[in-house]
Amino acid sequence: MTLTREELAKLLRPGLAALALLAAGAGLVWAAQQSVRGAQARLAAAEAERKEDTERLLRIAEEEREVKEKLNVYQQLKQLNILGEEHRLEWADAISRIRNQRELLDLRYRVERQKLLVSALGKPANVDFYASTMKVELALLHEEDLLRFLADLRASGNAYYSVKHCLITRTGQAATGASIVPRLRADCEIDLITIIDRAAKR
């Protein structure tokens, strides 16, 4: 079937319109696909940002929890007077008070010079742990006198009291009816530990 020139002329305009519509349709499909891709990219970016924000919030919450825990420990150490310089006068007062309250018959002690135990890395500065060794000689009526003395010493604060060792020996003295005679003697070495925060001293 052949078309005449007149028929072709009549079909030309609808054909061009159809081609224009096809091109417009293809353009719309392409634009829709681009819009979908753009929306998917924005969605992926938003999800990534939300994930990053969630992780950041979790990190902040964890850091806040750690800071609260460390602050709680710091406050406890501060209340015990463990932080800062030695409290030698307070140590002497505490021992004198324990001696009088417990009515200890013979208690002698000597505190040696302070020495550095360890320097722990910290931010913004190191934390130094110091110890002064206290040598105690104590006359005992029975072993519980020593346990009470050590408990009272720990309860007095002003340092962390770490007992290195205690040796209990018999005095060999016989009991008499006229007076109370200590039958035991304790020789102890106790580290009095204090902590110095170098950052706090700045």
Q: How many helical stretches?
A: 3
Percent in helix: 40-55%
Determine the structural class based on helices, strands and strand pairing: alpha+beta
Terminal residue distance: 103 Å
Main β sheet profile: 5 strands, antiparallel
Rg over alpha carbons: 42 Å
- Classify the beta-strand content into a percent band: 15-25%
Q: Summarize the helix and strand pattern as letters.
A: HHEEEHEE
Residue ranges: pLDDT <50 for 5 or more in a row? none
The general outline is: rod-shaped
Query: What is the CATH-assigned architecture of the largest domain?
Result: 2-Layer Sandwich
The number of domains: 2
Q: Could you name the CATH class of the largest domain?
A: Alpha Beta
Mean pLDDT: 83
Number of strands: 5
Per the CATH scheme, the topology name of the largest domain is Alpha-Beta Plaits
Walk me through this protein's architecture.
This protein is 51% helix and 25% strand. With 202 residues, the protein is of the alpha+beta class. The chain has 2 domains: 1-79; 88-197, Alpha-Beta Plaits. Strands 1, 2, 3, 4 and 5 form a 5-stranded antiparallel beta sheet that branches. A hairpin with a 6-residue loop joins β2 and β3. α2 runs antiparallel to α3 (143-155). The chain is rod-shaped. It starts with a helix and ends in a 5-residue tail after the last strand. The model has no long low-confidence stretch (mean pLDDT 83).
